[in-house]
Amino acid sequence: MGQKVNPIGFRLAVNRDxxxxxxxxxxxxxxxxxxxxxxxxYVKKKLQLAAVSKVVIERAWxxxxxxxxxxxxxxxxxxxxxEIEKMTEDISKMSGGKQVxxxxxxxxxxxxxxxxxxxxxxxxxxxRISFRRAMKKAVQTTMDFGARGIKIRSSGRLxxxxxxxxxxxxxGKIPLQTLRQPIDYGFAEAMTVYGKIGIKCWVCHPDxxxxxxxxxxxxxxxxxxxxxxxxxxxxPGGPSSAPSPAATAPEAAAPEPxxxxxxxxxx
Length: 267
What we know:
By secondary structure, the chain is α/β, with parallel strands linked by helices. It is 28% helix and 23% strand.
């Protein structure tokens, strides 16, 4: 059996933070937890086209703060803030009449957000685009935006096949066992005609604190002609055993100097 851990839960309190920030007694814990699940499902359903990455919920004594991380804040706010007011009322009813405040955080580069990348691939599969094409395009786009590595895995009845299978693509480095590396993880489901297809995405972000080291350039060797590299090949018939015809041609063509005579010239 494969033993895999959620990369976000694995890095909690190291370089990740909780998405529900509150403390409750044993009696209130189930009620708060169920309320958080309902709020996240409501926000995801209402803002399907707003590219919502995550929803952070903070609770105080009688107040609730909901922070929505989205790539399209204009859709969330709506015209003259009408959408925000409607969502505030609905979330207040779901939380038992508590005072609700909604904050919006814009995601500058959605191509580096694993959840948005997975949802983008799922949306393309639902539109009957080839899963291979969608995955390869997502990998290339993410790497172009400066990610250290990306891995995408889709499983299910791919292409409408009778037997379900899984295919994945990876580029760059994805060290899932290292806590120092900021690995982002996302999961989405594509509701196709022939069943559900699950998409998982891992993205390795560059370290924000330490600048990436540049690799030293290798010294380039001077290229020489093949005639100059006579001693490179050894063996019978090689250039080391027999001289090349190009090298012997000038010697054969040059005329030999005349022999000097020691006899005195006749008078």
